[in-house]
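Morning run. Coffee first, then this:
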Amino acid sequence: MAGRIVVIGSNMIDLVTYARRMPERGETLEAERFQSGFGGKGANQAVAAALLGSEVAMIGRVGDDDFATGTLANFVRHGIDATHVARVPGVASGVAPILVEPGGENRILIAPGANAHLLPEDLLPARGLVEGAALAIFQLEIRTATVLAGLEMARKAGVATLLNPAPAPDGPLPEGMLGLVDHLVLNQSELAILSGLAPDAEIDVIDAANGLLARGVGRVVVTLGARGARLVGPEGVAVIAPVPVTALDTTGAGDAFIGAFAHFLVSGSSLETALAAASRYAALSVTRPGTQSSYADRASFARFSAGAAG
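And here it is:
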């Protein structure tokens, strides 16, 4: 039987506007359409894994507003244990205004709101949940100190850890944090920043990933969009092939990848098999609008995978 996944991370409400192009400074444009939905990197990853059939629990914070009511109901609807997702009185829930261009590329702002109120000591009541997990997942849309405390808790219990260092940190991560990470999953710009380079710098992906291994990371997975992904670990380098699709909206694709990877990993798949499935799942998500609304359930994904294999 597959083990439980625990996600310690963020919840957001996505406010998505689809535009013909991005407005210039001081310019007002009429958008083609708007939709809102449930988001936040932590919640997205939790929902993707749950849709595929994993047992998932979420640890986080929501605000004292109607957005929080909807977010908590969304967890229940997906069968996610939200016992440790608490409201913060007098604080707004996190929101993410998103602009999407016709080719599917997006630009995102986040206002963390209640997510910033998840403190290291708030993890103590959930210690048993973390210690009983097969995999603990973290991102950086909550306090770094809380992420570090969660990683330490999981490591002491022998629980595998996955860190998605997004949004990329403004400064260096706490000393020793990377040494607590079994699976570091990040995109090329995040890899550049963690390697000490500008986010748009030309880098050798493999060299940069090996540099992170030298800092204590167990394995590094670099997602490269249409170029697939690279797995870099003690065994060497593996190329995860891309799945060609026509993108409609790339919002949340990275979270879809991580949620699917986590699901297949705790279900007993090898690293390369889990990553190949995650690549297919993320590819399917970009053909649909929205964030969590673009994520497929197990049956839909199986049909897509059968078609991709054919």
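The first helix runs from residue 41 to 51. Good start to the day.
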